[in-house]
Known about the structure:
Radius of gyration: 25 Å
Amino acid sequence: MRAILGNVMEPRDHEWSxxxxxxxxxxxxxxxxxxxxxxxxxxxxxxHPWVGFAIMxxxxxxxxxxxxxxxxIQPVTxxxxxxxxxxKPIGVLLFSWLVLRSGLATLGAGLNWSFLTAGAFLxxxxxxxxxxxANLAYPSTLLAAAKLGILLASLASAVVGLLxxxxxxxxxxxxxx
Length: 177
């Protein structure tokens, strides 16, 4: 004799068929949860990762209007790159240290300087506001070079920051490379 559990068929005479009252309660609770959300909310939850991590960055990149060319590398490109990749993390760490040293704040539970440093490297990622400010600050002759510096710095900050976060969490768990 077989019992149908969703799409899985299991024999009832098996040592553990999975057809327990606890499982039936969990299936019923799952059904109640899925029915409590409107179809629009389910669609929004399903699309959120795609929009946040693929569509919006592609939209921002397409609207950046940057032609990737090595001839656009100018001193302003290097200055923006250095400021975003190194300056922002240094600023975050310096002011965090000052606030902690003055006693205005304390490190949260489970937070240490390694985590704070790894997170500080991620601060150079934000390129949409940097594009906006670059459009206001630079003449059209330097705008492409500035945007290229912003994009390169965002990419470098993302890579370095994610590697740093991975390294810190890996070592916190006590694993060695």
